[in-house]
Design a protein that fits this description.
Shape: globular
Helix content: 25-40%
CATH topology of the largest domain: Metallo-beta-lactamase, Chain A
Radius of gyration: 20 Å
Number of domains: 2
Number of helices: 11
CATH architecture of the largest domain: 4-Layer Sandwich
Bound molecules: fe (ii) ion
Amino acid sequence: MLLKSFNDEGNLAYLLVDTKTGHAILVDPVKERVDDLVKLIKKNNYKVDYVIDSHSHADHFSGAGLIRDALGCKVVMGRATVEQRKFDTDLGKKFGIEDILSFNVKIQVDKYVRHGETLTYGEKTVTFYETPGHTLNSISFLSDRYLFTGDSLMIGQTGRLDLPGGSPSDMFKTLHSVLKPLADESVILCPAHDYDHNASRLLKDEIAENEFYKPQTEAEFVEFTSGFFPPLKLDDMGGVSRIQCGASGGQEKLEQGIFNILPAELEAKLKTDDSSWMVIDVREPYELLSGKITQAVNIPLSEIEGRLTEIPKNKRIAVVCQSGGRSSRVSNYLAQNGWTTVYNMTGGMMMWQMNYLPIQK
Ligand SMILES: [Fe+2]
């Protein structure tokens, strides 16, 4: 499967393609990027079957309806969307975002999905889970190793819980009863927002470290979350009032200087500006024979301690291994030893090659 992510002012959209057949799905496209996405999809002859909105968005205009009109695909949302849309009207009046909500609420939904339901695109399957908490109609979905969580679980936080349709009690159940059981050795979390340069990581690592997983009872969780998000305030952006679905900054990982980056994102950054980056491949030399990132310097995990002088502190350091495990350990080690911008490449070279990104042999 080919996975591409698109970041528009912190809103993350994803394109998933079954490379064997060209069938695809689009996740959470923003309205402003629809033309670019349609051009990219047509240029590559992808056949988009579904465009999925993970929930009713209150912070941006959804591009799902326009994508359907342009490509003839179906709009998919959670079954609680009808109920959620009743709340949305009140929210619009209260926070001055009627224009966003009245636009999104008019998008016709072609397929409402339930917990456990599956859809196919080409030879790939996507399985849906109802994950309320941020909104009543929030859904998460799994395809291959990727879990798309919308604003249910983000890196370092969850979506805010005080919007209409939101519920700390629902979120507690979502986190522990729905998402946690999905965390095996390989599932990668892909949230709908990236406010702090943390776009993806292994789900099990996020669950181990995310503060929202620390409270072990619902009562403790409600108390913890009540003070977490700053009060909603209006922010005028070019004449359009906006709210933000999560908190910015303040994440432990950000303070430590460790970020997570998808292979496709790293490749895009290296393409535009590779002079401010150093890519360290921490695999053993024989493992690089199957292919490496062109710019990568090989410093095996076992040699890192003795070769720290080769790693500049004034560059962004991207650490890469085969699947993301060793690079995560080295990223932590570098951050503990004074490197301030360290990027752990999620999914390692395995995912880099699954995404058909360029390699040097
Ligand atoms: Fe949201």
